[in-house]
Design brief:
This protein has about 290 residues and is of the alpha/beta class. About 35% of the residues lie in helices and about 15% in strands. It folds into 2 domains: about 5-75 and about 195-205 and about 220-290, Rossmann fold (3-Layer(aba) Sandwich), CATH 3.40.50.620; about 80-175, Alpha-Beta Complex (Glutamyl-tRNA Synthetase, domain 3). The strands form 4 sheets. The chain has a 3-stranded parallel beta sheet. Strands 4-5-8 form a 3-stranded antiparallel beta sheet. The protein has a two-stranded antiparallel sheet with strand order 6-7. Helix 1 crosses helix 8 and helix 1 packs across helix 9 (about 275-290). The longest helix has 16 residues, at about 15-30. The structure holds glutamic acid (GLU).
């Protein structure tokens, strides 16, 4: 089996140290496995996409010496694929239209006194829209033991999530007509024959949903590795919204060394002076650490 990995940034701003950590970890893992490394631009969320950000990210990656082995894939050009997957799930009865607003969902959870125990969608529209107009499409999650998804994360160890109590039927197409991340990412990972997913631990909570959706679509489940996210002074995941600054394209080794240090890689005492030297040392350290 050929290893195929990917880095899948959302173009909401320039690359920063947090996103560089995910890019570097996925790149090193692919190199350590003599595998293929791909880049996918996740510009599916129209309202969040910043014009020019994708080109900026691609230029920074190139400047940093991370070249994808195949041309980048753009989610905005793949709408027909997502529609096809939705039609398939419709035909098998695994999805249903939902007419609930956010407020209605919040209110019903409050009424059920479940506020502190679960935030799962209560399934109001499972058996019909109750006269409301359809807003979104939701995937029906299984019940009881069948709802428990387990997977072994290469960094974080064994993970378990109960889709019925912790998540509920989740949205694949949103009320604002946008494709949900969960659907797009599963369809694309399957189409690109991704075997290994390396990304930030903030996405850990989505993985059980993605594994279940893969099963619904008859797609294989890749191997997962979630790296620790970079946080700001308040312990929040670093993002453009909370103070992350764009990386200095002219000083790639500085940023790459910081990213490698975050990943716990020991690059020795003397700083690397070339990208090739850095990548050779970092790949060897990664292979030693992650196997
Ligand atoms: N586009 C997602 C993000 O930037 C990452 C998706 C993924 O790696 O699965 O947070």
């Amino acid at each position: 089996m050929t290893y195929r990995g990917r880095f899948a940034p959302s173009p909401t701003g320039p690359l920063h140290i947090g996103s560089l950590v995910s890019a570097l970890a996925s790149w090193l893992d692919a190199r350590a496995h003599q595998g293929v490394w791909l880049v996918r631009i996740e510009d599916i969320d129209g309202p969040r996409t910043v014009p020019g950000a994708a080109e900026d990210i691609l230029a920074t990656l190139a400047h940093f010496g991370m070249h994808a082995d195949e041309p980048p894939v753009w989610q905005s050009r793949r709408m027909a694929k997502y529609q096809q997957a939705l039609e398939h799930l419709k035909s098998t009865g695994q999805i249903y239209p939902c007419g609930c607003t956010r407020k209605e969902i919040a209110d019903s959870l409050l009424n059920a006194h479940t506020r502190n125990t679960t935030l799962a969608y209560p399934g109001t529209c499972r058996d019909g829209l109750h006269g409301k107009p359809a807003r979104a499409w939701r995937l029906r999650v299984p019940e009881a033991d069948a709802a428990i998804i387990r997977f072994e994360d290469r960094w974080q160890g064994m993970q378990t999530q109960d889709l019925a109590t912790e998540v509920g039927d989740f949205v694949l197409k949103r009320a604002d007509d946008q494709w949900a991340y969960q659907l797009a990412v599963v369809v694309d990972d399957a189409d690109e024959r991704i075997t290994h997913i390396v990304r930030g631990a903030d996405l850990m909570d989505s993985t059980a949903r993605q594994i279940y959706l893969q099963r619904c679509l008859g797609a294989p489940t890749p191997v997962y590795l979630h790296v620790p996210v970079v946080t700001n002074d308040h312990g929040e995941k670093l993002s453009k919204q909370n103070g992350a600054t764009a990386l200095d394209r002219d000083r790639p080794l500085e940023a790459l060394t910081a990213a490698a240090t975050h990943l716990g890689l020991d690059l020795g005492n003397s700083p690397h002076t070339t990208l090739d030297g850095f990548y050779a040392a970092a790949t060897a350290q990664w292979a030693k650490k992650m196997g």
